[in-house]
Amino acid sequence: GAAAYLRADGRTDLYLPGQRQPLMTLPGGAPARFSPDSTLLAVTTPGPLGWTVTLHDPATGREVARSGLLDAAPTFLSWSADSRSLAVGAAPLGSVGSVTTYPITP
Known about the structure:
Elements (H helix, E strand, L loop, with lengths): L2 E4 L5 E4 L8 E3 L2 E6 L6 E7 L2 E7 L6 E4 L7 E6 L5 E6 L7 E6 L3
Antiparallel strand pairs: 1-2, 2-3, 4-5, 5-6, 6-7, 8-9, 9-10
């Protein structure tokens, strides 16, 4: 499967097995998580209006879905064991925030 390298500049390089050069560089970064079935990579992405979570196909790097704007910068991403939902926690540090669960449909 693919490998994701979180860069110091906040972006993510996506590598396929045997490649020395990244397949592509994604605009987002930490936290980032592969789905348990390895078919999707969830990446947090900052934008001019706030944060979103983008889902990418690791084989191509293509963006396949994007969340709506989040309340704050995401602090964690957690996939369900069957890869059919993604929990996103977003809150300022030291405060009670929100956890949103997104259903994932193929």
